[in-house]
Design a protein that fits this description.
The protein is α+β, with helices and mostly antiparallel strands and about 140 residues long. The chain has 2 helices and 8 strands. Strands 1, 2, 3, 4, 5, 6, 7 and 8 form an 8-stranded mixed beta sheet that branches. The chain is elongated, with a radius of gyration of 16 Å.
């Protein structure tokens, strides 16, 4: 289930953000190009006890819930302001806030972390909480 959840979330991000607003995106274990003025690294993270039984019943009626967060680490050159980053946050919020997608994934409201310098880059994370339910 974890693989299907991660794939569905990445597909939504690719459609709504990478293609939708033209944002260069690096996915797990990829590399960025220095000529990108604004880009992000996207990953799907699962909690320590990410899957748990939330309702009981006979076979085919048990509900298992997987929780986690997707993170878009947004980068732009340091010293260039934050307006482009806030625009990315707004786009991610519009794409994910209280949305639902297959396989039964519900998203919470994305949040924007405090910015900080990372070498020559200014970085802020957009965190997207989610839960995915599976009936088994």
């Amino acid at each position: 289930m974890v693989s299907a959840v991660a794939d569905a979330i990445k597909t939504r991000f690719r459609t709504e953000i990478e293609t939708g607003i033209g944002m260069p995106v690096v996915y797990d274990n990829g590399t960025h190009r220095d000529e990108w003025p604004l880009w992000c690294r996207f990953s799907v993270q699962f909690g320590g006890e990410s899957t748990r039984l939330v309702s009981v019943g006979g076979p085919g009626q048990r509900r298992y819930r997987t929780i986690g967060q997707a993170v878009a680490e947004v980068y732009m050159p340091a010293g260039k302001g934050e307006e482009p980053m806030r625009a990315v946050h707004d786009a991610v919020t519009a794409a994910f806030r209280t949305q639902w997608t297959e396989p039964d994934i519900t998203f919470g409201t994305p949040s924007l972390t405090t910015g900080f310098r990372d070498g020559a880059w200014w970085k802020r994370n957009v965190q997207i909480p989610f839960r995915a339910d599976e009936i088994a």
